[in-house]
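On clarity, I found the account of how folds are encoded harder to follow than it need be. Since the whole study asks how a given chain folds, the encoding of that fold should be made plain. For illustration, here is how one protein appears when written out as sequence plus structure tokens:
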Amino acid sequence: MTPPGTTRTNPPLTVLSDDERLFYDSVYEFADREIRPVVREMDEHAKIADGIVGKLFDLGVMAIEIPEAFGGAGASFFHAVLAVEALSRVDPSIGVLVDVQNTLVINALLGWGSDEIKRRYLPRLASGTIGAYALSEAGSGSDAFAMSTRATETAGGEWALTGRKLWITNANEADLFIVFATVDPAAGHHGVTAFLVERGWAGFAVGRKEDKLGIRASSTCELVLEDCRVPRTQVLGEVGNGYKVAIETLNEGRIGIGAQMIGLAQGALDHAIVYTKERRQFGKAIADFQAVRHQIARAAIDLEAARLMVYNAARLRDAGQPFLTQAAMCKVFSSEVAERITSLAVNLLGGYGFVKDFPVEKLFRDAKIGQIYEGTTNMQLQTIAKQIIG
């Protein structure tokens, strides 16, 4: 009962509205029609097929939260999460491309960019420019702010960036990079600053592309900066405030990774259900054996729980409520569920699950990254423990 004089406010819902369901279905239908036929080719060649990126922009999923005034969809963070989930159900490589664009790059500019930066870059990000987020280095992974990339102020009022970045998603396709560097190593994380760097600037180069276990079509490259001159207007946020930019953006990004994981887990479970209903042994479909039915039921329970955690974290973020703990929890749990469900799918398909002719082998490989990037499972557990224990 609502007390007199108060207004009832509905809590965030874990079910989808009609608009959200229509959006999810339209993105999944696109992925099924346009991406599924080239998934194996992209995995084998470790490259996104020609034309796919342009179609993603045409679909509107590369600029979901960019305001309509700048050419974007003007939709919610939750819509971005749904897009990542739907795409990842077919190919997690495409899911993470869209995820980094929306939950890391665009959200960083929306949250920390000056009016000038927003006017200059948001229309480009909505119309064909891909962004990348460059935080990690060879010596600073989980200890993300022990970075060696330096930013030195020049006599002409510019910043000169020198260093190397590693494991940068979207680097091969991107034209805009958020690069984190320290202006004062002695200041620790208080010296970290975020800079916007464009491909083609003198002193900046995209280096070696990694040959990965999974999400192979998603490019992961080294960045090399050698006295790269960056105008002062290219600072994102304030000098020395890059730590906050990174932390707050990554908290949102982890929900996107959760969406990627539940999407690929759903894709693997879809394949397992179809196969077990068609595969016959001892005179009946193997889906009719109790042991198989119970395994699928438990996988569905895990997936439902993971999905609800991801959706809850996304709803909290959109509602302006604290979501740090929920974001960490959903990333940990969804990545573990993805690994379990893809492994089960391989087992249920037997020999077929072990060969590349069937998609579950790829989804099994793709799932592993969920426990590593955008904060390892151990780092998420540390965050959760700090929040609930102190």
